[in-house]
Amino acid sequence: MSISLTDAAIHRVREFMAREGGRALRVGVKRTGCSGWAYVVGLAETIEPGDHQFEDAGITIVVDAESLPLVDGSRIDFVIDGLNRTFKFDNPNATEECGCGESFTIQ
User: Which three-class secondary structure state does DSSP give residue 106?
Assistant: First the structure.
């Protein structure tokens, strides 16, 4: 089981952590959107019991137990497209994404 970051994502997470603090990058999912699941990315102040931890380039990534099967093996990139700046997931578990790219389906 693993979650990894591209160089662009590592740079962005380090910027956020330097400015905002935080102990780790928290990655998860929530039910929403056209296709059923949406990614949730934020900084974690604490690591909760049951969280799974991964390390990439000195950054701790935490994922709750319920989200892990849905994001396991994902590679997270940080993409700038015009005025839009977002984390983009390359998730081997996703079988479909909605047209706007905000949500995904697992079968």
Answer: coil
